[in-house]
Write a structure and sequence with these properties.
The protein is an alpha/beta fold. It is built from 13 helices and nine strands. The two termini are 28 Å apart.
Length: 276
């Protein structure tokens, strides 16, 4: 397991995200990217495979884009709720019709067996105590409810080529997960449904290689995401998109894509007895 030690106080307390909430998460480029129709294509496809309706909690929801897309594409199927540390993005989420909670996830009292699904999209790598967050998810999921996790892949092609020059090896990320280390923090009340490697951005690899690992500003990150989403929606680039999809699929099978996705299912009482 690779992790940051010691952790700067602003990341341990979450104060950094309150400060960065306006600068990055609410920048024009970032919001346009997050609310683009192609932004959560993979996550929504995976999510719908296991959860076709019900109560959904998105932990670390930021500006609410995932939940917004879920409601827009499948109206009436879900009752959604988001929570995060940063106030300004939550204000924006509410302005787009996404209900939110403003208290820290670990300190919030939820009803037991309240949710059909809990999601952690690009969240656990920011946390000092990721296992505690998963344990909390167990307690609020219905039996046979699903938990979805996405984190950067510490064995990706990008990290193998670039190592510390890769832009996602940076101060906000406190943990760097491999398949093995990600599985090692799963509470025993979860069964593993799927672990896979997904997403691939060759432009990031090219830029970080060319620039030799210089620090990439939040505004640059947002502009690149905006540009990438624009290309995905351009009908003239369909042949290139097909080639890209093939490359991503190959890298995914080799566990070399940019991210790891974990799908967990809360065991019911009979399954726990069988294990004992």
């Amino acid at each position: 397991m690779t992790y940051v030690d010691p952790v700067a106080q602003e990341f341990a307390s979450g104060a950094f995200y309150e400060k960065a909430g306006t600068e990055y998460y609410l920048s024009k480029a970032k919001l346009e990217s997050d609310y683009a129709s192609v932004r959560f294509e993979r996550e929504l496809r995976l999510f719908r495979k296991y959860c076709s309706g019900g109560n959904v909690l998105d932990v670390g929801c930021s500006s609410g884009a995932f939940l917004f897309q879920l409601n827009q594409r499948f109206p009436g199927s879900y009752q959604v709720l988001g929570t995060d540390m940063s106030g300004p993005p939550l204000n924006y989420a509410e302005s787009r019709g996404v209900p939110v909670l403003r208290s820290p996830f670990l300190e919030t009292s939820f009803e037991r067996n309240q949710f059909d699904a809990v999601t952690f999209w690009a969240v656990l790598e920011h946390l000092m105590n990721p296992r505690q967050f998963l344990q909390k998810a167990v307690s609020i999921l219905k039996p046979s409810g699903f938990c979805f996790v996405l984190v950067p892949n510490a064995r990706s092609l990008a990290i193998r080529l670039l190592q510390s020059r890769y832009r996602y090896v940076y101060e906000q990320h406190l943990n760097y997960f491999t398949r093995q280390s990600l599985r090692s923090i799963i509470p025993e009340d979860f069964s593993v449904v799927q672990v896979r490697s997904t997403h691939f951005n060759p432009l990031v690899i090219w830029q970080d290689w060319r620039h030799g690992g210089r620090e990439v500003s939040n505004s640059e990150r947002a502009r690149l995401l905006q540009r990438t989403n624009s290309w995905k929606q351009n009908p003239l680039l369909k042949p290139a998109k097909a080639l890209y999809s093939c490359a991503e699929a190959v890298l995914g099978r080799m566990n070399l894509a940019d991210n790891l996705v974990l799908v967990l299912c809360r065991r019911n009482s009979s399954e726990r007895k069988e294990d004992l």
